[in-house]
């Protein structure tokens, strides 16, 4: 990140103090903007002493891709003026990042839908000619979004204890759904939606495997138990050479809460710990509600699509999404400020 600092009407002692606050400010926004190319990020800081008012004025301007954000703080104490400006700019940045992510998810979903629609005539030709391998090879590269969904569903069920760690490979689940699609292609197309059918089939396969391990005597952990953030249940069995494989996208609070509502805490967990924490909190939500929320917020499915997949009313789906959002908001308020302390306290209580 590039930065430029201007001091106006500041005495030497105040300037020395201001330089310390500026250094912390730069370090903070370097962390918050690390997803951008650092050459495209510029922070301008103006610190001014207002002698007549006996106050300090701090102006922050942050240039990032697709936005120029600004905030100001004014107070009789320099530290408070910096704090006011920093918190305002953090909220503006959080809102911008959420908008970019929402746009990215929407575009990814639209691309998937469009590519599936384009492939249908060619898949139909392959099926009619009994060209199974060509059918599979044509369809597999289009299903990375479904792979993301399958991977996340499997992980949720590992966290609830319904599936043993590394028991089910999402690639194998998607592959089974693809083979099923080939065998039943004519019926699926007659119903009108291959993407919908594949999504639903993947969920069915995972539920079948849960039933299988239950019959084998596997006992799920109680929902109130706390899964440590470094537990083996966060590990998945994955084939990195699979045509579906994509890197796991680690979650942040701003991924699951509305734009501008949350700011990454200064004493943050590692990226992996934070993602595990959010996954764990979502795993505590009843399955149908969790799926509605996650498919909408993280996968970009519309309420109409989710209602169709779950066989429910759209109003009910919308209500569930808002209920889960409210729950996650409450958990963020409890956990985000000092998550490690809350985690340690929870573990002590569980061990008591």
Automatic annotation (TrEMBL):
What Gene Ontology molecular function terms does this protein carry? DNA binding; sigma factor activity
The record's annotation in InterPro entries points to: RHF-like, RHF/RaiA, RNA_pol_sigma70_r4_t2, RNA_pol_sigma_r3/r4-like, WH-like_DNA-bd_sf
Q: Where is the signal peptide?
A: none
Every RNA polymerase sigma factor 70 region 4 type domain range: 277-321
One of this protein's GO BP terms? DNA-templated transcription initiation
Q: Which domain of life is it from?
A: Bacteria
**What name does this protein carry?**
RNA polymerase sigma factor 70 region 4 type 2 domain-containing protein
Q: Which organism is it from?
A: Thermodesulfatator atlanticus
């Amino acid at each position: 990140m590039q930065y430029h600092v201007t001091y106006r009407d500041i005495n030497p002692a105040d300037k020395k103090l201001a330089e310390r606050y500026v250094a912390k400010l730069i370090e903070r926004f370097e962390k918050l903007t690390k997803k951008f190319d650092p050459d495209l990020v510029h922070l301008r800081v103006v610190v001014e002493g207002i002698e007549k008012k006996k106050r300090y004025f701090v102006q922050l301007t942050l240039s990032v891709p697709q936005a120029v954000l600004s905030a100001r703080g004014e107070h009789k104490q320099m530290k408070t003026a910096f704090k006011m400006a920093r918190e305002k700019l953090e909220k503006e940045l959080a809102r911008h990042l959420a908008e970019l992510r929402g746009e990215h998810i929407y575009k990814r979903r639209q691309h998937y839908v469009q590519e599936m629609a384009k492939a249908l005539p060619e898949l139909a030709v392959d099926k009619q000619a009994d060209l199974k391998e060509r059918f599979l090879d044509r369809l597999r590269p289009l299903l990375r979004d479904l792979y993301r969904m399958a991977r996340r569903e499997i992980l949720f069920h590992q966290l609830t204890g319904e599936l043993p760690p590394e028991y089910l490979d999402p690639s194998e689940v998607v592959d089974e759904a693809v083979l099923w699609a080939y065998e039943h292609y004519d019926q699926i197309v007659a119903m009108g939606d291959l993407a919908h059918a594949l999504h639903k089939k993947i969920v069915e396969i995972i539920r079948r495997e849960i039933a299988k391990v239950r019959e084998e005597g596997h006992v799920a952990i109680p929902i109130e138990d706390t899964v440590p953030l470094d537990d083996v249940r966060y590990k998945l069995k994955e084939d990195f050479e699979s045509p579906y494989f994509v890197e796991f996208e680690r979650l942040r609070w701003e991924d699951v809460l509305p734009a501008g509502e949350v700011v990454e805490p200064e004493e943050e967990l590692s990226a992996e710990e934070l993602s595990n924490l959010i996954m764990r909190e979502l795993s505590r939500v009843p399955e149908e509600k969790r799926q509605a929320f996650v498919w909408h917020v993280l996968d970009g499915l519309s309420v109409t699509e989710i209602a169709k997949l779950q066989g429910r009313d759209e109003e009910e789906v919308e209500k569930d999404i808002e209920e889960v959002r409210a729950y996650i908001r409450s958990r963020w308020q409890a956990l985000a400020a000092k998550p490690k302390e809350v985690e340690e306290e929870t573990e002590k209580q569980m061990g008591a």
